[in-house]
Structure formats: C-alpha cells, structure tokens
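Components:
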Amino acid sequence: MLTLFIQLKNSIMLGCQYSLIAIGFTLFFGMLNVVVFCHGGFYIFAAFAATALITAFRFSSSPFFLSIVTLLLLFTAMSITGALGVLVERTTIRPFRRSPSVIPILSTIGVGTIIEQLLKLFYPQGSNPQVFPEVIRYGKIVFGAFFLTRSEIIIIGITGIIFILMYFFINKTKIGLQVVAISQDWEAAGMMGINLDRMVSITFFLGAALAAVAGFMNGIYYTVFRYDMGSIAGIKGFSAAVVGGLGSVFGAVLGGFLMAFVETFSAAYIPGGSAIRDVFSFLVVLLFLIFRPSGILGERKAEKV
Amino acid sequence: MSLTTELPDSMLDIHYFFMEVHMKKGLAAFLVALLFLCFTASLFGGAQQEKVVKLAFIGPLTGPNAAQGMGARNAFELAVREANASGKLPYKIEVLYLDDASDPATGAAAATKAVSDPLVVAASGHWNSPVARATIPIFAEHGVPFMIWGAIGADITDKFGKMYPEITRNCPTLVSENKYLAEILTKERKYKTFYIIHDTSSYGVDCMNFFKAGVESFGGKVLGVDGINVGEKDFMPLLAKVKAANPDVLYYGGVVMEGALLRVQMVRAGLTDIVFAGISGLADEKFNEVAGAAAEGSLIITPGKPDALEGWPAFVKAYEDAKFSEPMGAYGKYSYDAANIIIDAIQKVGTEKAKLTPAIRNTNYTGLLGTYSFDETGQTNLVLMSFLVSQDGKWVTWETSDYAAGKRKLPR
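Structure:
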C-alpha cells in the first residue's frame, strides 16, 4: 500500500514535467496546425540558461534572499527562453505559413538539432553532464513512512499554480480569448481585427517559457542534465499532447499525467519493466492513435469542406 | 605616381607590361632559390633530423565519459613526453589524439583515421567496451598493434584477443572486478542480501551476470534484478520497489551519469539505510561531483592498487607538475603504462608493425603498477584492484578512510 502511494507520487512528479512540455505543443498546434519539434530544445536550453544565471548571480547565502533571487532568475530564464521561442517562430515557422505542413516539421527539427549542438559546442564543457546548482535545500515532510521532500512540494506547487494561471489566462483574459479564437478559426479571428502575428508571438513566448519551467524543474528534481536530453523530453511531451488531444490545454495536462502513470507503473509492477518502460508508454500512444486519434479531450474532427 | 602625368596612355601600358614581366622574373628566381635551399637543406640537414614515429590514442575526449578519457589522454601524453625527453629512442614520438565520444560509430571513424596514417605504428585506447568492439577489427585488419587501457568487457580479450594477435589489454576485466567486489561485500562486510540494477548495455548486463554469480558463490542472496536504459533519468519507481525489497546492498552495474542519478534519487526516495556499491564504471570524481552530498559512503572497486607502489608518489608528482587541467581518473595509470609498454617494444624491435605485434604480446615490462605479461588472449596477468569509498566528495582507499578507522559508519 505504501509502495503504491510512493509510486503515485513518483508519477505525479514525472507528470508535472510532461504536462508543462505538452502544453507548449498543444498551444502551438492549436494556433498554427504545426508540430514544433524543437520544443525539447527550448526545454534543455532553459536548463543551461538557468544554470549559467544561477552560477553567475547567486551571491547571498541567506535562505530568504536566496529564494527571491532564484525566483527572479527563474523568471529571467523563462523570458530568455520565451524570446528564443519567438525568434524561432519568426525565422523558421512564419516564412512557411503557406507551405505544405511538412516544411515546418523539417525546419523545426533542424532548429532543435542546432540548439542542442550549439549548447554542446559553446557551453563550457557542454558535452559533459551538467550539475544543476542546488537552489532548494534538502528537507522533507514526513507522514509516517511516506514523505515528501521540499523540492517535490515546490515542484508540485509551481506546476499547480501554472495550471491555474493557464486556466484563467485562456478563459478570462482578453489575450487568452484571442488565442482561443485564433485556434478555432484563423481567418475569422483575423477578420474580427485580432492581430494574428502578435498573438502567434505571444503564444510562442508562453509555450517556450513553460518548457523553461519544465527544464528548471528537471534540474531541481534530478540535479543532473545533459545537452541531449531535450529530444526525448520533446518526444514525450509531444506524445502527451497527442494522447490528451492536440489543441486542448487541459487535455495536454491529462495526457502528460497519463504518460507518466503508465511509465511509472510499468517500471514498478511489470517484472523487468524498468528497462522497457518507454515501450509501454509508447504502446499507449499507439493505442490512442488507432482507437481514438483525437485524444482524450480532442474534438472529433468532422470533415471540413 | 608621377609616371601617369608624364607618359601618354599607350606608353603607360607598355611600361606596365615590362614591369610585370620583370616582377614575374623576380618571383620565379626567388622561388627557384627557395626550392634549391630546401633541397640542399634536405640533403644535408635531413640526415640529422629526428625521425618521427606516431602512436594513436583513442578514447572518450568528449561526451558523458570525457573525464575518464581526458585523464587517460593526459597520462598517455606524460609517458610520451618522458620518453622523448629521456632520449632513449632514435625517434621523436608524436601522438595522434582521437575522440571516440563513447560512441561506436565515432570510434570506428577515428580508428580508420588512425590506421590510414602511415606514421602510426601502434595504438592504445577506449574506456567503453562497445566502442572497443567496433574498432578492434579495424586495427587488427591493418596490422596495427592495439592495447586497451580501460574497456573492461570480458569478451574483448576472451573473443577478440584470441582472434587477433594485435589486441592486448593491460587492465583487469570486469569479471575480476565484480568477483572481488562480491567477495569483499559478502565476506568482509558480511552483507547478505543484494539488489542488482544494471544498464541494458552489454557492459551493464555483463556486470550484472558476473556480480550475481560472484555474490551467489559466496553465499549472498540476490533479491531482485532490474535493467535501466542509458540516458534515462527517472529511477524513482524502481527505487520504491528496491525499498520494499529492503536489501543490504544496492549494486549498480553501469557508468557515471546514471550511477550518480541513481545515487541522488536513492536519498530522495529514502533509501538512506541501504549501501550503494559498484565497480570501476563509477570510479570517476565526476560521480562525486554530480551526486554531491548523496555520494557519501558509496563503495566501488577500481583497477590497480597504486598506494602500495614505490613509483606512485613520483608519478603523481610528475602528473601534477605537467599541469594538466583534468585529474588522471581511474585509468590514467593504465594508459600511462600502456604507452610505456608500447614504447619499450619500439625500443627493442623498431617501428615495423609486424614485429611490434609479437613484441608487445611477449612483453615482460615492469611499469608503474607492476610487471606486465600477456596470456594467450592478450589479457594481462597483472591483476590488482582497490576498494574505495566516497568520503567528503572524493574516492578514498578503504584502508585509509574514516570508515575503516571506525570514525564513520556505513548505513549497514
């Protein structure tokens, strides 16, 4: 029973990261009908950016001050990554808006590879595993034999806050409603006077910034990262978005957690499962593609004429 | 130019024409003179000039195991510098450093580069056995003697060393390391129950098999075995399973990156009362750096027993004096000895590859770590190993540690 609870916690921790990446995929797809394959690149770029920033600017040891500085640096890393997202959209997606949809797939795969390789080449010792600076000191809350560490609580907390903020952003703010309008009907939204290009830029800023949060959390949680970890994170996030229903933010969250549950529980309860956990999680993706290609919450697409 | 004002256009052209011819003549004369100079220099000076012989060094200079590769590279460089400075050879030895990035394909490309350089007479390399398996046939086919200083997969000598006389290995295999670790843990430390996690590479699977066999032969009990993939980072589900099994020791058969991640997550998952152990795949200060405070009390086996050796302090000092920017790592001493075994053979039989191959195989060379000879599979007969514990972020020989002195205690 205890092990079951621990495994539930483990899958929630993994799910937090998958969902944050999946939201980006789903936002981009909802708006432009393109799959942005360099999203994992944003994620790993943010881990490097955050590490560099924290190492350079952390000068106080007082815990209160430290957490404020860390939070500020997290926002800085998010903004830089967001700006990278906007830049990538401008240079490799916007020019192909009227091209066949295979073109942006190729161009974003290219950008993703470029981001990874540049990090590997130009970050000091970029090809080696990087140690994420210790920003949260070890501590835990104990409930009998079950416990939560401080970093786990913070990760769950931040993810929860982001989910709530996303909900309000999409449903209550003017920009959010414009984003939804565009993803429902691009042309109609344009005719209603929505500045399409500006909204696309905002969406890319937001999506990349969320990937940055995921990269930051990966650093806090696992403490180690490497330049090539972006692509697999990107594939997992994309799969989560597909399982949840591309275009639906809430679906991306659900998909992220579903993927994490399948992975965790196949590693824990299937003999020899830890070596082939990805097989099980991608089997789930395949099953969805076959039996419910629109995903958990995706609208069933009627043939548009 | 005053000329332009004095001469009409047609004259100017002619003037330029002659100037050009004149210049071309000058240039030609100069080139001829230079050529002549070179020729005479090669005639007279060349005789005294040193002959250059190249060795190839190949290892993971970048990538996840770069720390291991750079340490070995530096030690190799040190041996070559010493040999060149000693003047005992009629050649100047140069080293062709090649990066395998721990990747078989990159390694194979590097090996091809090494064998196609006519000056390369012998090579030494590899920390990763899968890379060694990819390059061994290339070196052997071209008749280049190839000594392995750090890839410890059993089949490298069992299979390839038997097939190709060019292949030798001067470090112990993972078979000896795992057996030694199993013996210490069961007999000296009196641990009874073990859980084995291994990566699914051939290295990890070999480690699992030999450690399991070792533990069982010494009367220990293996409670469970699980594989993980290289490049994975989330081991929390697996560790919860290990926690429920409650073994004395969690053994990891794999290398630094996943090993350190596993160690950090052991603490996070509350497995603080279980001992963590592994073999030389983890023997890198990078493990301590990456795992941070969690590394404390981890146990490993490394090849060699340098502390007991006479020549060791001098070697450490020479390495420090050489001002390399990376520490020598667990296999630096082996690549140093590998370089010296090769150089010794060159000194004895010259630079012909066909003669070097048997000379290296039949060596009886006393190096830093002891006297090397090779058996019929090319495996060294010199087997020395140390038992280390992580203490304050460093690997420390067990005998000199606070743990052996009783000042600190392992979890069990």
